Write the C-alpha cells for this entry.
Amino acid sequence: MSPKVLNGKWLSKQFEQRLRLRVVSEKEKLGAVPGLAVLLVGEDPASGYYVRTKSKVATRCGFQTFDERLPASASFDDVAAVLTRFNEDANIHGILLQLPLPASLPENKLLDLIDPEKDADGLHPYNQGLLARGDALLKPCTPLGCMHLVDLALSDIESGEGELPKHGLPRGDLSAKHAVVIGRSILVGKPLVQLLLERNATVTTVHSRTAKIEEICRSADILIAAVGRPHLVTSGWVKEGAIVIDVGINRLEDGSLTGDVDYDAVAPICQAITPVPGGVGPMTVAMLMENTFNSFLRSITA
C-alpha cells in the first residue's frame, strides 16, 4: 500500500494565503490588523526556533508582532507583568506564552493570567471548559491542526499539488470511526478527544498506564500519537488502512528529528500518514494565526 502523505507544510501555506487576503480586506475597511504577542522565557533552542517561525508567519499574514524575551532566571512576577501588559494592549489580539517554561515557573498559573479572549493557544481553563461543552471560540492549535490533517486524509485532495479548492478543505465524516489518541496532556491529548467527539468519532485515550495498549491502537481507524517518545508506534500497533497522525517531534543524538511513529515501518500499511517534520508542526502555527485573526474579528465587532 502506498500511503497518502499528509503534507502539513503545503496545507498550512494554503491557510496562510487565504488568511492574508482576509487581513488585507479588513485593513482596507478598518485600517487595523491583528496583533500577535509571543513571550519566550529562557534560551531553549527549540522554543527559540518556534518563536522565530511564528513571527515570520505572522508577518507574512500581515499581522503586527509583539515578541518579548525574558531570561530563564525571570520570576513569576516578571512573567506576569509582561502578560498583564499584553492583556491591556488594544493592538494585541492573540497572546502566546511559549512552552515549556523553566522548571521554576508554574505553567498553569501563568497560563491562567492570559485574557481568555486573547488566548491564542486555547489553553486558558475558561476556553478548555468551553471546549468540553462544545462551545469553544478558541481551540488549542495543535489539536485543531490535527483535525484538518484528518480531513485532508479523508478527502480526494492530494497534498502538495496546486491549491485547495475554492470552497476549501471539505469536512470529513468521522461517524462510526474509532479514533485512538496516545497521550493525555492539556496541550494535545485531552482537547483532541473533545474535537474528535464533536465530529461524532468514537474515541479512546491510551497512555503509559493503559493495559494492552498495542491491541487498542490496532483497533483504530484514526491513530494519533502525542507523547514525545521516538518511534513508540511500530507497525504492530497500526491497523491496515488506518490514518496515522504523528504529533511527536523528537531530536535524536545525531541531531535529526523524528516522530513518535516509526514512519518507515508504519507507512506501508497506512491509508494516510503525517511526516515528521513537515506534518503537524506547520499546521499548529497556521492555527495560531487563525485563532488570533478570529480574536481580532471579535474585538472589532464587540
Q: What stands out?
A: Residues 8-30 form the longest helix (23 residues). The longest strand covers residues 35-41. The chain has a mean pLDDT of 95.
